[in-house]
């Protein structure tokens, strides 16, 4: 059975559609409109961190969050500081390592994230009006697969860039575990 890479025109068209969609979804004005609709103020990167915490369903370490979001731990620490002052997350001692801290969503953080998700869903439902449900389901399946592959590719690239010369061969050989398949 032929796959998508057998049709360079379809792949090129998909790239163009995804570039347009990424642009539309990540415009600052759109983010501000969506957060205003939800009655909140939060940076896009903060929303991704809150989503990662919600998906984890339990407290997480900064390093684990950084790995999931594919950023440096210092970036996550600054975000947590901001979110903690807004009472959206809380830090608690790690029971396994007294030096480490766990981070979790507060009830206020969970409520804020739910309001934002509902505002996003309403906007998306409006954009999907008239599109048959089976088409939406098929699109979700393809996009999940695409995200999983991109996450694996990015993680392997990150590991390769961070690897020392002595273990780069292990990373290229595919022995690196890509970790969770969905980023936020």
Describe the protein's topology.
Elements: H1 8-26, H2 28-38, H3 44-56, E1 60-61, H4 62-69, H5 73-85, E2 89-93, E3 101-105, H6 107-127, H7 133-162, H8 168-172
Antiparallel strand pairs: 1-3, 2-3
Helix pairs in contact: 2-6, 4-5
- Sum up the overall morphology in one term: globular
Strand order of the largest sheet: 1-3-2
Separation, N- and C-terminal Cα atoms: 32 Å
Radius of gyration: 19 Å
Mean pLDDT over the residues: 82
* SS-derived structural category: mainly alpha
Number of helices: 8
What is the share of helical residues?
55-70%
How large a portion of the residues is in β-strands, by DSSP E?
5-15%
Q: Uncertain regions: pLDDT < 50 for 5+ in a row?
A: 167-184
Let me know the largest β-sheet: 3 strands, antiparallel
Tally the beta strands: 3
N to C succession of SSEs: HHHEHHEEHHH
Would you write up a description of this structure?
With 184 residues, this protein is mainly α. It is 65% helix and 7% strand. It has 8 helices and 3 strands, in the order αααβααββααα. It has helices at 8-26, 28-38, 44-56, 62-69, 73-85, 107-127, 133-162, 168-172; strands spanning 60-61, 89-93, 101-105. It has a 3-stranded antiparallel beta sheet with strand order 1-3-2. Helix 2 packs across helix 6 and helix 4 packs across helix 5. The two termini are 32 Å apart. The model is unreliable at 167-184 (pLDDT under 50).
């Amino acid at each position: 059975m032929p796959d998508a890479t057998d049709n360079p025109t379809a792949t090129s068209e998909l790239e163009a559609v995804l570039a347009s969609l990424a642009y539309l979804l990540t415009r600052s004005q759109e983010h501000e409109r969506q957060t205003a609709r939800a009655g909140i103020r939060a940076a896009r990167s903060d929303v991704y961190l809150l989503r990662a915490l919600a998906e984890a369903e339990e407290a997480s370490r900064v390093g684990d969050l950084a790995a999931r979001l594919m950023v440096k731990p210092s970036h996550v620490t600054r975000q947590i500081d901001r979110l903690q002052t807004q009472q959206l997350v809380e830090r608690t001692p790690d029971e396994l390592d007294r030096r480490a801290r766990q981070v979790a969503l507060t009830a206020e953080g969970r409520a804020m994230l739910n309001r934002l998700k509902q505002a996003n869903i309403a906007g998306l439902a409006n954009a999907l009006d008239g599109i048959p449900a089976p088409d939406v389901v098929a699109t979700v399946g393809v996009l999940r697969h695409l995200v999983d592959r991109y996450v694996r590719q990015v993680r392997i690239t990150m590991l390769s860039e961070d690897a020392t010369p002595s273990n780069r061969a292990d990373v290229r050989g595919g022995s690196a575990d890509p970790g969770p398949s969905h980023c936020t």
